[in-house]
Amino acid sequence: MAKILAIANQKGGVGKTTTSINLSSALAVLEKKVLLIDADPQANATSGLGFDSSLKKIGTYELFDKKIEFDKIVYNTSVKNLKLIPSHIDLVAVEIELVNKKNVNLF
């Protein structure tokens, strides 16, 4: 059965990204299949897993916007069993675009 873990805090600099990268990598090493979704426009989890966010323009924003199929935004990482949906600075626009929409269904 799948489990969903969210690491969130309004305060910056408390280790959310570091915890996310380390926990997801550790679980992957333990042979768990892991999908890390980078939901921060700064894209530090994306770059922390070795992706250049300026080159990966398809990611979390498109997940919200439904401009692309889910399977096309999932990338393999250098860690076996760990996949990533990368982020990009464009994600900043999602809050503005979704604020007036009702009944948003992502999946």
Query: Architecture in CATH?
Result: 3-Layer(aba) Sandwich
Strand order of the largest sheet: 1-3-2
**Computed CA radius of gyration, to the nearest angstrom:** 14 Å
Q: Could you estimate the helical fraction of the residues in percent?
A: 25-40%
Tally of discrete structural domains: 1
The count of β-strands is 3
Q: Which topology does CATH recognise?
A: Rossmann fold
Which of globular, elongated, flat, extended, rod-shaped describes the shape?
A: globular
Structure description:
- The protein is of the alpha+beta class.
- 24% of the residues are buried.
- The radius of gyration is 14 Å and the shape is globular.
- The chain is built from four helices and three strands, in the order H-E-H-H-E-E-H.
- The protein has a single domain (16-98), classed as P-loop containing nucleotide triphosphate hydrolases (Rossmann fold), CATH 3.40.50.
- It has helices spanning 16-29, 44-48, 60-65, 92-98; strands spanning 34-37, 75-76, 82-85.
- Helix content is 30%, strand content 9%.
- A three-stranded mixed beta sheet has the order 1-3-2.
Brief account:
This protein is α+β, with helices and mostly antiparallel strands.
